[in-house]
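Translate sequence into structure tokens.
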Amino acid sequence: METILAYLAAFVISVIEATGYTGIFILMAVESANIPVPSEIIMPFSGFLVVRDNLMFFWVVVAGALGNLAGSLLSYYAALWGGRPFLERYGRFFFLSGTEIGSAERLFEKYGTATVFFSRLLPIVRTFISFPAGLARMNVWKFSLYTLAGSFLWSLLLTYLGFVAGENWDMLETYFRKFDWAIAIVLAVGLAWFVIHRVKQRRHE
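Result follows.
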């Protein structure tokens, strides 16, 4: 895992050094399209480049936020056009029924804006929240607005931390990785509980 992260970090750094704001936009879009390219490397390193006067702080944040929005919309529409028919047909194999898909729709209708906004500020969750939003057919304009707002704050925070840390920007990635593991464990426990609960329910039925 450490070797993979080292290669990934080297790739991210080389892309940003070669292409600047365009690289930041593309990498952040890839991250938001459910591909694990960590923004905890992308944005702090970009903040460090601001210290060296290679980039401008404001445009780094804008490029990061817009990249997140672009990748999130790709994931959103993939779920909207392909994910829902797939789950309606094969959802029972994943312990999901039409009733539960409908419940997810109602949940996003009621709390979708807050869910999308605050999820953008959480490691791991922020990468995958677009897919359930698309499945639930959340209003795309609301989705875009709150995605952009949350992504802007996340990009601003990471860029600022990289700016302050300077040459020690890479220490931030190790710090954020602790949060990644904590959230991953919580999600795994939640998923395990859901599967066990559904298996027991099926047996009872």
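Note: The chain has one domain: 2-204.
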